[in-house]
Design brief:
two-stranded antiparallel ribbon, single chain, 6 helices, globular, mainly alpha, 142 residues, binds zinc ion
């Protein structure tokens, strides 16, 4: 395994974000891939114990997304990392970006009752700030 990846995964905020993505993928997979066979995720993040006892159980397609997302999160060059949807660096490939957007859109509202209410609030607040900052930048450019 890549040493840099392993080191990043030991970072508390990276691990937390990765677990959140795991939770979201589980919610999405259950709702959108009802007939798919699901297995506990096999990934480098999972091997490092990032998901703790809540190993995501997902289908192959969702596992592929999670493996991809682990890497993108670990190698995110931004510190502090903004929420991906408000970031100006688009590090996801087009296809994966669409997939992740679907997962977020579907699972975000449904995760509030599963212990992620604070994450939603933070997301909302940061979204408003990102919008304000973008407007301020646009005003300067004019
Ligand atoms: Zn799935």
């Amino acid at each position: 395994m890549n040493e840099r990846f392993a080191e990043k995964m030991r970072d508390a905020s990276v691990a937390k974000d990765t677990r959140l993505l795991g939770d979201f993928s589980v919610i999405y997979c259950r709702g959108n891939h009802p007939d798919a066979a699901r297995d506990p995720l096999e990934s480098e993040g999972a091997a490092l114990g990032v998901y703790g006892r809540k190993q995501p159980v997902v289908c192959n397609e969702c596992a592929e997304l999670l493996r991809y997302a682990e890497k993108r999160r670990a190698y995110c060059p931004k510190d502090p990392k903004p929420f991906c949807s408000y970031c100006d660096t688009h590090c996801y490939s087009g296809e994966m970006r669409e997939f992740m957007r679907d997962v977020m859109r579907y699972s975000g509202p449904r995760s509030v009752t599963r212990g992620h209410a604070m994450d939603s609030v933070r997301h909302l607040i940061e979204g408003r700030r990102a919008k304000r900052e973008a407007q301020a930048r646009a005003a300067v450019d004019d």
